[in-house]
Amino acid sequence: MSAVLATPKRSRTRAADHYLTFLMLVLLGYSLAGRGFAYIGAPPLFIGEVLLLSGLLVMLRTGGVFATVSSLPGTLLAILIVWVMARTLPFFGTYSFDALRDSVIVMYGLLAFVVIALLYDEPERLRRLVLAYGGFAVFFVTVMPIIYPLFQLLNAQIPTWPRYGVPFISLRPGEVGVHFAGVALFVLLGFRRLNPLQLAMLVFGMALVAAHSRGGMLAIVVPLAIALALVPRSRQLAPLLGIAGVTVIVALVLNLEIEVSSRKLSVDQLVTNAMSILGTTDTATLDGTKQWRIMWWDKIIGYTVQGDHFWDGKGFGINLADDDGFQVVDAEDGQVLRSPHNAHMTILARAGVPGFVLWAALLGSWSVFMMRAFLLARRNGDRAWARLFVFLFCYWLSIVINASFDVTLEGPMLGIWFWVLFGVGIAAGLIYRNELENRSPLPH
């Protein structure tokens, strides 16, 4: 009887492989069309929810389910998901699907479990993902420096989804910047070579983001600096820096300015954005939005850490911008805000101090897990593995940085990328340790 009911391994493998292809296509769609791609489907099952639910079904048919919580980050994620569910379900009757929508900042973490199970069940899938990202890197750096400025210039002419009024392509600078950072990391760490024209396109794309978004600038600069500190030898670093240097010199000599939406792409704009991160500028827009964020974050700390919502937060479902008195129309996509421009403050406001502590422990434990895997690989002379761990960590860190300045993890465009990288990192660490354990000892 059990033999009849058992699912053949070949069938399970085929389903998992098909799902992995589906996952990669969805990630590609989010990276190229952003919020416009997210509206494929019908409420409450948009493309992100279909990806999650189908992934959970496939995961249950693999042999890697127990690996999902075999690491400390995986265990902490499971606990955090339970806590968020406890702070979501009581509000479903009042806020309906808004409660579920707000909870995805953590609930998309279930995708991390799906990825861990699939890759641990068949480690060859990890290699397939890395190879696929190499193709994505070349494609993204070729088309996005064209798509992004065209979106900014022709936004009003782009067709929209009939029911929602959202353009088919809707890109935020931070989202684009994260993926430019990922491509740059992939190239500098030696996984893929780009020709001079592609390197120039990469420099141009990163400059576009840096001129448009301070968070996007940090999401590019900080991970690249960390990666180069951990793996200083890079054959493509000199060409990349050379192209960037020549570009800056030409822009200064010719005083070049490119109008992109409300910001100009120029050396002066890049310097102004950098200065606004470190201090104040004479630009009302930059200083004003910075002060607005700080005031809102201070209020959240006031009613959680120092106030009545210490243990429970305000829950998932309530519009925090309305309730906290900081409602504005988001300048990037014209939508009414629901959450502060900081994922960590969102967790604190909605899940209280216990939820925030779990969140901080989750981020910290995953970072330690990845750094330990990197150091282990470097100590054993496994350079490819070491570079892979640096790539995954810095790519993921780029999203964390962007999420500290924008509404990022609250949506699927980068939220799903974040949790997929989280899952790939854990799976890669577990697979590498298994590989070390299975290596034959050297003869004496």
From TrEMBL:
Origin superkingdom:
Bacteria
Keyword field: Ligase, Membrane, Plasmid, Transmembrane, Transmembrane helix
- Indicate whether Transmembrane helix appears among the record's keywords: yes
Q: Which residues cross the membrane?
A: 20-40, 103-120, 129-151, 171-191, 203-231, 237-256, 347-369, 384-402, 414-432
Recorded hits in InterPro entries, A to Z, give:
O-antigen_ligase-rel_domated (IPR007016), WaaL-like (IPR051533)
O-antigen ligase-related domain: residues covered: 199-360
Coiled-coil annotated spans: none
Q: Which GO terms describe its molecular function?
A: ligase activity
Localization (cell): Membrane
The name this protein goes by in its record = O-antigen ligase domain-containing protein
Species of origin: Azospirillum brasilense
